[in-house]
Design brief:
Chain A has about 300 residues and is of the alpha/beta class. Chain A folds into two domains: about 210 residues, 3-Layer(aba) Sandwich (Rossmann fold); about 90 residues, Alpha-Beta Plaits. Chain A has eleven helices and 14 strands. The longest helix of chain B has about 30 residues. Chain B is α/β, with parallel strands linked by helices and about 375 residues long. The chains are: A alpha/beta (about 300), B alpha/beta (about 375).
Chain lengths: ~300, ~375
Amino acid sequence: MTLAIDVQGLSKSFDGRIVVHDLTLKVARGQIYGFLGPNGSGKTTSIRMLCGLLKPDAGSGTCLGYDVIRETDAIKRHIGYMTQKFGLYEDLTIAENLQFTARVFGLDRRNQRIEAALERLGLQHRRNQLAGALSGGWKQRLALAACLLHEPQLLLLDEPTAGVDPKARRDFWDQIHAMAAQGITVLVSTHYMDEAERCHEIVYIAYGRLLTHGPIHQVIAESGLTTWAVSAKGNGARIAALSQALSGRPGVDAVAAFGAGLHVGGRDAAALERAIASHREDPLLSWHQTEPNLEDVFIDLVARAENEQRAA
Amino acid sequence: MFWRRFLAVFIKEFVQMRRDRITFAMMVGVPLMQLILFGYAINSDPKSLPTAVVIGDSSPFARSIVTALQNSDYFEIVGPPVSEREADELLRLGKVQFVVTIPVDFSRDLVRGERPTLLVEADATDPAATSNAISALISLNDTALDHDLKGPLAGLKDAPPPFALQIQRRYNEEGITQFNIVPGLMGVVLTMTMVMMTGLAMTREQERGTMENLLAMPIRPLEVMLGKIVPFIFVGYVQVAIIVLAAHYLFDVPIIGSLSLLFGAAVFFIAANLAVGFTFSTLAKSQMQAMQLSFFYFLPSLLLSGFMFPFRGMPDWAQWIGEVLPLTHFLRIIRGVMLKGNLPYEVWPNLWPIAAFMLAAMTLALLRYRRTVA
């Protein structure tokens, strides 16, 4: 199996602040790789190092077989990078934006490619509309079309679905899966857990460090978390009181509101059971053990990373 | 309640002002700059103007006249006497402001009481620079030879003055201000718009978030810079054409030299300004800051180039700064070509400083741009 991305020990700091620390990443071709982490965790910086925009302070590796430090020109020619903010010109029309992109890449059969892209987008009749007049969802589709014009083998998408409605988001993901089926590798950063679940594998980073990676079921299984779901008969006041009572108790590592109930999680199953024992007898509460979801896992990972940071 | 809400906005404004360093520097820097430039650099009564003398008759009278010129503060005789042809050349090149010609047989005619004519030619492309010196010349006429006219010649002291003074305003006989201002405006307009336009063009990409996308594509810094600059060269030429047409049809400014020479020289000047604008755009974080930086460049260009105030009236330090600015040289080129009919070799001494400035600015722009990228 060949790797689309294969980097070791990438690090970057700005003004002495470490933004990405020792990032090692291996992504197989044709995979959809979810890149997750809280705001400011170093996702964008990592992506910018992968696509040759930023020079890492340390580390090495390849993207599509090209060296990320020395062969940035080749990388730029062969990957598609979609920036977090709409990166095309709002005062150019849809067709003009595509023309510009095609020219910069020096593509042959320019008009043919643009026609095909417009058709795929369903934008033929709006080709002369200014990009600035498009809604968020359409802008995102246009941006994706522009970075697909040169038929890249690797797509780096930086929070592509921020501010896009659910329907457009679903269409977008269908398109990503269709591309992966054709062998295109996709690395996509996101905040949405449901999107993470659409990825073949995920990477979770926080504070510039990779905390976990792998297929979702594996990430969950490896977390070693025990999670109890509690729901209350009656009003929410009871749940709020319980949340207060349990937070910070030994054995309880995470308490999170979940719908009308709570998720209570801990790494030590026995300690967690001791902590909740007295509350389990409460007739107004109903308890059952559940599989932790991705969010539980991530919140726990971040909490642990915070503790380690503080300890260090 | 009114005061509390007023204070909320008031405090917020101060905090924001402190954050925006460039704006703050502008508010303090511009008055300081104006104070220095207007207070120390500008002088609308230029003295010590370089003057060449052509002596057709070497006599004590001639020497006295030269000494008197020197003593008047307005004239500074440069070098030894020159031939008529050399003097003409110096004037065309703008190396001297005046040529004083003492004709053959000057002393003989003077002694005979025939009132010989002393010819003074002034480079009147900038009438303001020469008018005070010319007034001084007229009073000089009465007294220059007082010491020499003794004994039998004492009678010549009585009015009318012993010799006649013929003043020739070269290149602008009637001393029309527009002849100086309108061609000069070409340089000023180009400086203002070219620097600002490119300054805005690049920061706009930053502000709108299109820069990141551009950088991620396989395009090199030089390609981006040239691609951004060249369209404005066309805009610059449109401006040049408008001003040339207006100069000719509206203001009757003579166009003696070759227009193609002017257009050819303009390309360097335009490119130099564009490169400055590009550099500013790599320094500025917003379009607003790019505008402010352009102003910082524009102000000394306007004041120290010789456009608004006579270049030779300024103290040395201001002239040195002026010599670095492309506008100074471009003004000399336009006035030289349009009013004096300068030829390519006469334009060269002012063209290479512009070209050198252009190369320096482009290198700086490219280095700065590369740094923004990395």
